[in-house]
Design goal:
The complex is a heterodimer of chains A (253) and B (344). Helix content of chain A is 23%, strand content 27%. Chain A is globular. Chain A has a seven-stranded mixed barrel. A four-stranded antiparallel sheet of chain A has the order 1-2-4-3. By secondary structure, chain A is an alpha+beta fold. Chain B has 344 residues and is α+β, with helices and mostly antiparallel strands. Chain B folds into two domains: 165 residues, no CATH class; 127 residues, Cyclophilin-like (Cyclophilin, Beta Barrel), CATH 2.40.100. An eight-stranded mixed sheet of chain B has the order 21-14-15-18-17-20-13-22. Chain B is elongated and about 60 Å long. Classes of the chains: A alpha+beta (253), B alpha+beta (344). Chains A and B meet through strand 2, strand 3 and strand 4 of A and strand 16, strand 19, strand 20 and helix 4 of B.
Chain lengths: 253, 344
């Protein structure tokens, strides 16, 4: 049960109504695309905002992903058909203007014990580790979705030159705070766990920490950039983060 | 305060309640009890809210001792041999452990999970409104992990309320009902037919994240990688080897395998109670039927207090109930999802 993503990137026409797919009797998948798709993800986030702004009675929570919005609801309060009609109408209304996206700068120690795949990635892409880091740091990313385990933030906007198939053998355990690439994506993994992606580095930032306000740092739609730090700084910031500091910087956007 | 001390316990046993929905957009699964109706029945017997925290006991045995006072408890879910200090203890009735007495439970019979509810619930720190253990996320209270021998739960001393039993609807068997989708169009018609006609068994490697199924290999139309989308309890995803995995309460909130079908709410608890190695089938139902059954399920759960009955002749009844459980293990409180709720 690892994150698996298709490698395709395609654009969908804006006007298509989404497909309504039943996810059992208490959830609807509102699908805008089958692929990782910038336009679809923006429509997902827009529908999510629209639902937050104009709540539908019976909807209990939503889960935005790259290409679809999962809408959990209470079938005692609203039926699949009635909710489907409302969601379709909401998805086709002009999107409410996005609140100004927050922009985070997240410190990362690249390579070495913190990013054990950096050298192999450089070899596979026929360049140097420094060049991989430079390209990864140059990226301007958006949180496309958060999923799988608490705080695992999937980012869109990875430089095309860093697209690389996932590992043949996924690792059963990868460290907390891992910054990795897989397919067309990059991500910030919060908790230690399995992963089939290539590990480039680690951040001291906890995107999920229970005894902290806020518990979850990132929201779908937030902008993210990375800044390299050395191992000593990592150790200092890791202690501060453990004590509840946010460590990531909120940038003027 | 009294204490309930875990004298011994097997794996897959933890404090569970209605779970913590509301943060799935941040990757935190809703979690909670595998079989909510059995949890609710146990809680109702001791006067708790239906989905209050109780002990979810896995397939192996367990023993609990009351300390610093009497403790009133109730058992529901998969039946098993049970005794309190040598006296037979019944399922689906409330009972009181005197200070120092031990409730000893055997292996689950015909199911997988039993629920031990404690009058006034379990003391702990609510995390996202829930005490439910989600070991991967480090959540759960009083212990953020499965229970171990020696653990102590702080509980209120028994109130001395008269003991009672609960009359639950008769268990219904039959196939586990599913609604097809959300990605049934990723499978050829033959694969869908095979999924619905096949005999399935739950693999021993299953856990609170997912039940792995053994049976026919289900082929995909376009390969097994889709772009991750959201999951629910009961999502039936099919990875590359064609052996479905049914996602359970501690699932990942998103997943990248096509999902051929989803177990309906009313049958989820019954499915969760299917023991490893036990054969079963799926049956597709319409959305209208699934939603009608979901409504009945929640109504049954809400109206459980109406099913409480006094125990007039306690000693006699306890024996009778015990015999009923032994004779017709089908009765078992276990098959929550299959119980037909009475017509209103």
């Amino acid at each position: 049960m690892f994150p698996h993503e298709s490698e395709k990137v395609m654009a969908a026409p804006q006007s298509n109504p989404p497909r309504l797919l039943p996810s059992g009797d208490s959830a609807i998948t509102v699908e805008f695309s089958k692929n990782i798709d910038e336009v679809a993800n923006l429509r997902v986030l827009a529908l999510d905002r629209a639902l937050a702004g104009e709540p539908i009675a019976g909807v209990t929570e939503t889960v935005p992903t790259y290409r679809s919005l999962l809408v959990h609801y209470d079938p005692v309060k609203i039926s699949f058909d009635a909710l489907g009609v409302k969601l379709t109408a909401l998805a086709q209304k002009p999107a409410p203007s996005a609140a100004k996206a927050r922009r985070w700068r997240i410190p990362v120690t690249y390579g070495g014990e913190h990013g054990i795949d950096l050298e192999d990635v450089a070899k596979a892409l026929r360049t140097t580790p420094d060049d991989i880091v430079a390209r990864h740091v140059a990226g301007d990313y958006r949180v496309a979705m958060i999923g799988f385990t608490p705080g695992w933030s999937y980012l869109s906007g990875l430089d095309q030159s860093l697209h690389l198939s996932r590992r043949q053998n996924p690792r059963v355990m990868t460290p907390s705070g891992t910054i990795s690439i897989g397919g067309v994506q990059t991500g910030v993994q919060c908790l230690a766990g399995p992963s089939g992606w290539h590990l480039l580095g680690r951040t001291p930032v906890r995107t999920y920490q229970f005894h902290r306000d806020p518990i979850f740092l990132l929201e779908p739609g937030d902008r993210v950039t990375f800044s390299p730090i050395d191992a000593k700084t990592f150790a200092e910031q890791d202690r501060a983060a453990e004590a509840g500091e946010i460590v990531a910087e909120l940038m003027p956007s | 305060m009294s204490k309930l001390v875990v004298a011994s316990i097997g794996p897959a046993s933890s404090v569970q309640d209605g779970g913590r929905p509301g943060s799935q957009r941040y990757g935190l699964t809703s979690g909670g009890a595998m079989d909510r109706l059995s949890l609710a029945a146990a809680n109702t017997l001791v006067g708790n809210e239906a989905l209050a925290a109780a002990i979810e006991i896995g397939p192996f045995g367990a023993a609990f001792t009351a300390r610093d006072g009497a403790v009133r408890v109730a058992l529901a879910g998969s039946t098993r041999n049970a005794d309190i200090a040598g006296r037979a203890a019944a399922f689906d009735t409330s009972m009181t452990l005197a200070d120092g007495e031990t409730l000893t439970l055997g292996f689950a019979r015909g199911g997988a999970f039993s629920y031990l509810a404690i009058e006034s619930g379990i003391a702990g720190e609510l995390m996202f409104g829930s005490l439910a253990v989600n070991a991967r996320a480090g959540l759960g209270s009083p212990y953020p992990r499965p229970l171990q021998a020696g653990d102590e739960l702080q509980v209120k001393a028994a109130s001395g309320t008269a003991e009672r039993r609960i009359e639950l609807p008769a268990a219904a068997g039959g196939p586990i009902r599913v609604v097809m989708g959300p990605q049934d169009d990723e499978f050829p018609d033959e694969a869908k037919a095979l999924f619905l006609a096949g005999d399935w068994k739950i693999s021993a490697t299953s856990d609170r994240m997912g039940y792995r199924l053994e049976g026919a290999s289900i082929k995909h139309l376009h390969g097994h990688n889709i772009v991750s989308d959201g999951t629910v309890n009961g999502s039936v995803q099919v990875p590359g080897n064609g052996q479905p995995i049914v996602l359970m309460p501690d699932r990942g909130t998103t997943g990248g395998y096509p999902k051929i079908a989803t177990v309906i709410t009313a049958d989820f608890g019954r499915f969760a109670q299917t023991p490893a190695g036990h054969g079963f089938r799926f049956k597709a139902v319409s959305m209208a039927e699934a939603q009608a059954e979901a409504k009945k399920f929640w109504e049954l759960l809400r109206a459980l207090p109406d099913r409480l009955r006094p125990i007039e002749n306690f000693d006699l009844n306890i024996e009778a109930l015990r015999n009923a459980n032994v004779a017709g293990s089908a009765v078992s409180a276990v098959d929550a999802g299959t119980w037909q709720s009475p017509s209103p």
